[in-house]
């Protein structure tokens, strides 16, 4: 993630003032407006452990919907987050199977990253803090969520809680607070028309564009970004645990090592071997309620390569 150090400073700020969440992920989905180069394959990088903590207590995830109101988008994201628990039934390869790769990371006492469960949701309507969320206004969004939520709904424990603020596409979140999910987040379901470039070709010609398994390129792309960020916040919550490279200001984390990799053989613009549903939409994981998702792989520390449960080898 870009500018992790700022994110880190914010995290302290957040802990001091509200003690509400251990960590914060903020997403704003902005369709097709940001150029980010597609990186087809990962280079071998020396991923190292820097002795800091990982999220080893059961991770409670709290979602704050900040004017993110489309009910079908919410349902897709909610079902995805509910699929992380290994008790939520879904056929193999499942979202819970995908999380097992993340759980292979440990801290210096040998504690693995824990399970993750959606533990509360809060709805913040009518742009209560405006359409540009600064550090301070983000703080208020969280404070409101904590104070106005039903008992038990957001019983925030900053040691085990991860807050995820999802905003509508017209809300701006400063880059240092999180990721704007731009057009390229929707790849491989769509390719930004104004990118000035054609989609990457695969080795055997053609391109990898495919239908979105839940019917919306933006939300289906955002699913993979959410998974990416959850993997990284769990394995590197204070930016002193698992990352590659010498620079903690822009660490290469366990999901940054596998951009564009969704199946065996991925690389050079090819997403790898994934499944097709009966409408021809691509997916690689099953979730609850017969959902299907396409989620990028993460670095497996034992196999020392990008890996996911749909791997053929
Ligand atoms: C914990 O991590 C170790 C080392 O990667 C791995 O061998 C073990 O299977 C992991 N345990 C769980 C429950 O994932």
Architecture overview:
- The chain is of the alpha/beta class.
- Helix content is 22%, strand content 17%.
- Residues 1-20 and 28-42 have low confidence and may be disordered.
- It has five helices and 13 strands.
- The longest helix is centred in the C-terminal third of the chain and has 19 residues, at 217-235.
- A hairpin with a 4-residue loop joins strand 12 (298-300) and strand 13 (305-307).
- It starts with a helix and ends in a 6-residue tail after the last strand.
- The chain has helices spanning 4-18, 71-82, 95-102, 135-148, 217-235; strands at residues 23-29, 47-49, 59-66, 116-124, 161-167, 179-181, 242-244, 275-276, 282-283, 285-286, 292-293, 298-300, 305-307.
- Helix 1 crosses helix 4 (135-148).
- The strands form five sheets. It has a five-stranded parallel beta sheet, sandwiched between helices.
- The structure holds 2-acetamido-2-deoxy-beta-D-glucopyranose (NAG).
- 2-acetamido-2-deoxy-beta-D-glucopyranose is lined by residues 103-104, 106, 112, 301-302.
Strand order of the largest sheet: 4-3-5-1-6
Mean pLDDT comes to 76
The number of helices is 5
Can you count the beta strands? Answer: 13
* Ions and ligands: 2-acetamido-2-deoxy-beta-D-glucopyranose
Task: Please outline the major beta sheet.
Answer: 5 strands, parallel
Instruction: Give unreliable regions as ranges.
Output: 1-20, 28-42
SSE layout:
Layout lengths: L3 H15 L4 E7 L17 E3 L9 E8 L4 H12 L12 H8 L13 E9 L10 H14 L12 E7 L11 E3 L35 H19 L6 E3 L30 E2 L5 E2 L1 E2 L5 E2 L4 E3 L4 E3 L6
Parallel strand pairs: 1-5, 1-6, 3-4, 3-5
Antiparallel strand pairs: 2-7, 8-9, 10-11, 12-13
Helix pairs in contact: 1-4
Bound molecules: 2-acetamido-2-deoxy-beta-D-glucopyranose.
Pfam families: Phi_1
Protein name: Protein EXORDIUM-like 7
Family: Belongs to the EXORDIUM family.
